[in-house]
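INFO  loader      accepted 1 record
INFO  loader      residues=145
INFO  predictor   begin
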Amino acid sequence: MDIVDYLETLEMKAALKLQKNISLTMAEWWMHVVDYRWSKEPKGQFVDGYKGEEVVTYQQEVFLPTWEKLEPTLCQWGDATLDNLLAEPTTHHTIMWHHNKLTFYKNDQCKIQWVHKGENAVPHAKGEGVSLMVANFVLADYGWL
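INFO  predictor   done
INFO  writer      dumping tokens
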């Protein structure tokens, strides 16, 4: 329909000297003539960035050492209770907030498109494209942030 709509504009009608509009069937036929097919995009091997060099470096040199440094001050659950831990006046406690998220994607599950017959499979990134993430932070003892 994008082709039909585009060719209905006054500029394109004048440029191509069109007397009348084309139909959707004509647009689909033309796409086949120029070697496009309505099908799934060819995809190659899955590629994910979580093992990228910069991510691994950050995890090893920043995140994990920071976590290890904070670990003695983290609140512990089980035999120890938050009240017992907070009752020790000389001890500083670090509270880690956890998050919950939902991600909504533009064109969720839209897998079929016009693909040229010469298009080859290529490695593709993880994900569904443009998205909107809704996140909340929560801790059992304090509730929602």
